[in-house]
Amino acid sequence: MSDSKPIAQKTTGTFSLLGVAAVFVFLILLSNTFLKGMRLDLTENGLYSVSAGTAKILSAIEQPLTLRFFFSEEATRKLPATRIYANRVREMLEEYVQRSGGMIELQIVDPLPFSEEEDQALNYGLQPMQAGRGVGSVYFGLVGTNDLDDVIIVPAFQQRNEQFLEYDLSKLIYTLSHPQRVVIGLLSELPLAGGWNPATRMPEQPWAVYAAISEMFEIRALPRDSLEIEPDIDVLMLVHPKQLPTATLYAIDQFVLKGGRLIVFVDPLAETDTTASNLRNPFNENLGDTSSSIPELFAAWGVQFDPTQVVVDRQLALVVNARGRRPVEHIGMLGLGTAQMNDEDVLTGLLSNVNVALSGHFTLADDATTTLQPLLFSTEDSVLLPIGRFFYLQDVDTLLDGYEPTGQSYVIAARLSGQVHSAFGDQPPANPDAAKAAHVAESLEPVNIILVGDADMLANHLWVQVSNFFGQSMLSKFANNGDFVANALDNLGGNEALISIRGRASFSRPFEKVETLRRMADQQFRAKEQELQAKLAETETALSELQAEQPGSQILTLSDEQNAEIAQYNSKRSEIRKELRQVRHDLDRDIERLGRNLRLINIALMPALITLLTLALLAFRRRRQSGQ
What we know:
- The chain is of the alpha+beta class.
- It has twelve helices and 24 strands.
- The protein has a seven-stranded mixed sheet with strand order 10-7-11-12-22-21-19, with helices on both faces.
- Helix 6 (about 210-215) runs parallel beside helix 9 (about 480-495) and helix 11 (about 510-550) packs antiparallel against helix 12 (about 560-625).
- The longest helix is centred in the last third of the chain and has 67 residues, at about 560-625.
- The radius of gyration is 34 Å and the shape is globular.
- The relative contact order is 0.09.
C-alpha cells in the first residue's frame, strides 16, 4: 500500500506536467489565431509604435506600394551597432506593413558581393558604405516604388538621423501615395529668379536657393498686387513683402484661413534689396524702402515683429572682410549653430549651421491665441540695435559701443500654429476686387505658418559659393540656409498628418551609471592634468630664472640647484602620472564590476529565481498531495 502511493503521486505529477504542456500549446495556437497582428509596446518612449499622423497616412494609401529594404546581413556580422539600428529600421517597416491593410509589400534584400541583388542596389543608386578591411561594402538603404513607376530612394540610413526615422519613412510613403509635385506660390520683392539688376545694369542668374527648390517643387510666380491665391497652390512663400496692397493682404489672409500653408521672410534691413532707394540714408524715414513686414496680418495672428530693430550677438558674430582692413567680426551677421536651433523639429533637427544678416525677431502678443515654436534663436548674450546704427557703417567695431546684453534669447525663425481670426473682421475690405469668394472670418483648421526674420539669408553670399567650371555653375555650400528653406517647403507641402509627426526619442540608450562614472573620472583627470601643467609651468619659470643668472654663457650648463629642480619635477610628474593611472584603473574596475553585476542579473539571477519559484511550486503541490 505504501509503495503504490509514490507511484500514484508520480503518475499524477506526470499527467499534470503533460496537462500544463497541452494547455501551453493550446494557448499559443489560440493566440496565433485570434491575437494575430496585435502588439504591445512596453518601451519607455513607444519606439515600436507609430504616431497618429503616421497611422492616418497609412490608412489613406490608395495604391499598392513596394518597399525594398537593402541590408548587408552577412557583411555586418562584426558590426553590432549597425545591425542593431538595421533591426530597428526593419521592425519599423514591418509595423508600417502591419498597419497598411495590405497596401505595402516589404521585401528584405541582402546584396551579397557580385550578386544580382548587389547590381540591383547599385542600379537604384544606393550608396555602399566601406566598413573596413575584411568587411567589404555594406548596403543599408531603402527603395520605394508605386504602380506609376515612381521611385524614392533612401541611399543610406544614418543613425544620427534616428530621431526623425518615422518622419522620413512616413514622408516617403506619403510622397509615393501623392506623386504630384507640390505647387509653391512665390511672391517676392527680391530677385530670387534672377533678372535685370538696376544697380549693376547687368542680368543676374537665379539665386542658388531658387534653383534648388525649383528642382523639388513647381514654382509659380505671383505679382505683388495679386487679388487671389489660387486654391491649387499648396504653399505660399512671401519674401520681403513691403507695403503690399490691401487686396493682396486680404488674399493672403483668406488663403491662410482656408487651410493654406505659408512661409514668410520679413526683414528689418534687407541689404539684398536692390530696388530700395536711399538704402543707406540715415535720415530716410520711409522704412518701406529698407524694411519689410505684414503688420496687419501679424496683429491678427498674435505676432509682434518690430522692423526697426536688429538682433546682434557677440557670441555668434561672423567674420567679414572690411574695406582696406583685416577681417573683423560683425555682430549683426550671425552664424547660428546647433545650439541655436530646435533639434526636435524636422526643419532644423538635422541642420548644422544657418547664417543670417541684420535679422529681426518675433514675439507673441499677450492676447495671442496662437503658439510660437522657436526654430532659430540667438544666445542670451544678445541685444537689439536700431537699424540706424547700420546706415553708412564704416567701422563695424563701433557696434560694440555701449553693448549691454539683455540676457534674453531672441526668436529669429519660428513655427506659428493655432486658431486665428481674419485681419479684416467679419467683412471683406471695401475694394470690390478683393471679394471674389465667400469671406472666411476664422481659420477652418489650425494654421501652420513659418516665420523668418531675415530675407537676406536666401542670398548666395550667406550660405553658398558659386563658381564657374567650364560653363557650368558649381555650388559649394558652407551653411544650411538652402536646406532650411527646402525642409520648410517640403514639410508645409505635406498634409496635416505628415506635419504633425515630430522627432522621436533615440533607440540607442546609454548606460547612465557608466556615463556618470566616466564623467567623474574625466573630472578627476582634468584636475590632475591642470595640476601637472601648473607644476610644469612653475618649473620652467624657475629654470629660466636660474639660467638667466649666467649671462654671456653660450653653452647650456646646469648647476646643482637646476639639477635638483629637474629631479624634483620629474619625481612630481611620476607621482601625478601614477595617480592618473590609478584613476583610470579605478574607473575601469568600477565599470567592469557594474558589467559583471549586470551579466549576473541577466544570465544567472533571473533564471535562478524562476527555477526556485518552480521548485517551490512543485514542493508545495507535493506537500499538499501527501497531506491528502
